């Protein structure tokens, strides 16, 4: 077992509904989730729930030193590991609900891309609403939001509720293809144009 998987598993056993997964996402899933990170310009990219950094690494590679990458992680050991592993990433040990405040503290107006690793299906309805409202409010005109869902979670009421909430909050929500090379298999939601 890799060190990252061991950390993930240990933190999952302590707080299953916050971590929401037994292992980090694969490179395939990371590539699908991070696809909206632009290859040009100086974008502000916000990453929510980076965990041990599967998406962080992909975002950093795509940015190649451009823009601002803010990673918001509520779990202290994971936030610490990320800061050590990715010194060029602005890691905030904080709740994703504070994303707007975290951007203003840094003199950044809004995000161009929000990439989420949050375990939406594990959250109660109130938390799903609070977090998605905070995400939508932090997005600039033309910004993109991506997140993922495990395929085994599709029938769960909390996952169906989240999907309905996405459609309520965004004008455009497009599900991607299933990424089979992930444990467990997952698919990505690409959302744009948050409704006011
Ligand atoms: C399913 S893991 C995904 C980790 C990583 N993105 C990946 O795909 O391998 C969910 C992550 O979200 C973090 N998280 C959960 N609730 C959060 C919140 N309210 N604010 C910030 N991070 C949160 C957890 O600590 C965990 O690191």
TrEMBL record:
Record-linked CDD domains? AdoMet_MTases
Gene3D superfamilies, A to Z: Vaccinia Virus protein VP39
Keyword line? Methyltransferase, Transferase
Methyltransferase domain: residues covered:
45-139
**Which GO terms are recorded in the biological process aspect for this UniProt protein?**
methylation
Under the GO molecular function aspect, what terms does this record hold? methyltransferase activity
InterPro entries found in the cross-reference section: Methyltransf_25, SAM-dependent_MTases_sf
Q: Which domain of life is it from?
A: Bacteria
- Specify the protein name: Class I SAM-dependent methyltransferase
What is the source species? Answer: Nonomuraea purpurea
């Amino acid at each position: 077992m890799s060190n990252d998987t061991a950390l993930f598993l240990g933190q999952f056993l302590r707080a299953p509904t916050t971590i929401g997964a037994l292992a980090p996402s694969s490179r395939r899933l990371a590539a699908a989730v991070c696809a909206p990170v632009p290859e040009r310009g100086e974008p502000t990219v916000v990453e929510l729930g980076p965990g041990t950094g599967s998406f962080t690494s992909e975002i950093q590679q795509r940015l190649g030193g451009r823009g601002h990458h803010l990673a918001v992680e509520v779990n202290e050991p994971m936030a610490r590991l990320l800061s050590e592993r990715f010194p060029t990433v602005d890691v905030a040990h904080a709740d994703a609900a504070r994303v707007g405040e975290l951007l203003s503290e840094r003199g950044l107006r809004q995000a161009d891309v929000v990439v989420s690793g949050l375990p939406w299906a594990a959250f109660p309805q109130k938390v799903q609403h609070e977090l998605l409202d905070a995400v939508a409010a932090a997005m600039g005109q033309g910004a993109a939001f991506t997140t993922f869902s495990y395929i085994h979670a599709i029938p769960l009421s909390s996952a169906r509720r989240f999907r309905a909430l996405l459609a309520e909050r965004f004008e455009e929500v497009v599900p991607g293809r299933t990424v089979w090379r992930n444990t467990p298999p997952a698919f990505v939601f690409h959302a744009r144009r948050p409704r006011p």
